[in-house]
Write a structure and sequence with these properties.
The structure is a single chain. The chain is mostly beta strands and 378 residues long. It has a single domain (36-377), classed as Beta-galactosidase, Chain A, domain 5, CATH 2.70.98. Helix content is 10%, strand content 39%. Bound molecules: beta-D-glucopyranose.
Length: 378
């Protein structure tokens, strides 16, 4: 080998070492340590809207903005570490401001419907906005999905997250009492997204908070969710009338298209359900403890999502009102059934249903509930 060949070989070896060290370094940083970033996302009436990005040691990444407490992105790894964004959403704050389907948001003060927006508590009558036909839906015209929350981030060896706080004033959207709310989103190294809700009040009120992500385990914008296999641990559901208000009955699911006590594909019986699924299930084993309440699998990506909660109900909604008029992330158009929601909450219209588990919060009491969305592969 002449001197020139030795020099070239030397340079090639050096380049090889540099490239590989840099490659490993990047991989090491991104896959072995929990991390969190905070970036400005936009501005709303002079109040900064921030986006928090949490990444765990497996690369699972969640992006949350403090407008509406919205989960804008949820990248979940498969066995090879390939990431798929499994939630519907938008690319800009303006689109979230114009939004109607509550993509990824925290919903409150009362998630789901209250008949005619009316209820009475301790002999006082309250009138809330009728923002969904004759009924009140998801906290009203400017619910918790449309406000800027205060936000503080935190990081620990095995988890990172954001604590969102918001004081909903006495009379806001017609609800009584100043409600001091705190929602903590946590990403863990076990590929879980945990949501802990807390609230206290200075007057008797009603509270029912939930989270409204539309999931698609094939990836957002990758078509419908009808072949996803779903199991819901519920022997009963809450039948509703034409305006989606409960009749008061809690009906057995067995021998009907509502039965997901064993896994079924979402689409297998959807034609039998007028308009598609948009029902609250009465979750088995409600005693205040966390338990597995739903499991969804995509046969395409083999991705599995498990839902755990301490709450009595879950709204299973198949994106029936998505009609192709919304353009989501990366220019994807969202059509009917392109996402599904599993919103853990109390049953709809509970303030008017004496037979349902109560949602009244009084001064001195604390509203405290948790839900976990956990991701794995099959
Ligand atoms: C409700 C649907 C409603 C949707 C709004 C769901 O939680 O169950 O009836 O249309 O939210 O996007």
């Amino acid at each position: 080998m002449n001197k020139k060949s030795v020099q070239i070989l030397g340079l090639m070896t050096l380049a090889f070492l540099l490239i590989n060290c840099a490659g490993n370094q990047t991989k090491k940083d991104s896959v072995e340590k929990m991390n969190i970033k905070k970036q400005i996302y936009g501005d709303l009436n002079g109040k900064g809207v921030y986006q928090f990005t949490m990444t765990n040691q497996h690369g699972m990444t969640v992006k949350i903005i403090n407008y509406g407490g919205i989960v804008t992105h949820l990248f979940v790894p498969d066995d090879e570490g390939e990431l798929t964004d499994v939630v519907l959403g938008y690319d800009s704050l303006q689109q979230y401001l114009d939004d109607t389907p509550y993509f990824g948001a925290i919903v409150g003060r009362y998630g789901n419907r209250i008949a005619k927006g009316k209820f009475s508590l301790d002999g006082n009558e309250y009138q809330l906005a009728a923002n969904n036909g004759p009924n009140h839906l998801h906290g009203g015209i400017r619910g918790f999905d449309k406000v800027v929350w205060d936000a503080d981030d935190f990081i620990r060896p095995d988890e990172a997250g954001v604590i969102l706080t918001y004081i909903s004033k006495d009379g806001e959207e017609g609800y009584p009492g100043n409600l001091d709310c705190r929602v903590t989103y946590t990403l863990t190294n076990d590929n879980e997204l945990k949501i802990a809700y807390e609230a206290i009040t200075d007057k008797p009120t009603v509270v029912n908070l939930t989270h409204h992500s539309y999931f698609n385990l094939k990836g957002q914008g990758e078509g419908d969710i009808l072949n996803h296999q779903l199991q819901i641990m519920a022997n009963r559901y809450v039948p509703v009338d034409q305006s989606l208000i409960p009749t008061g009955e809690l009906r057995e699911v067995k021998q009907s298209a509502m039965d997901f006590t064993t896994p079924h594909s979402i689409g297998s019986r959807i034609e039998k359900v007028e308009g598609g699924y948009d029902h609250t299930y009465v979750l088995n084993g409600y005693n205040g403890n966390m338990r597995l309440v739903a499991r969804v699998t995509s046969p395409d990506t083999k991705m599995v999502m498990e839902v755990y909660t301490d709450l009595p109900g879950i709204q299973f909604y198949t994106g029936n009102f998505l009609d192709g008029s919304l353009t989501g992330k990366a220019g994807k158009i969202y059509h009917k059934h392109n996402g599904f929601c599993l919103e853990t909450h109390h049953y709809p219209d509970t303030p008017n249903q004496p037979g349902f588990p109560p949602v009244v919060l009084r001064p001195g009491e604390k509203y405290e509930t948790s839900t976990v969305y956990k991701f794995l592969t099959e």
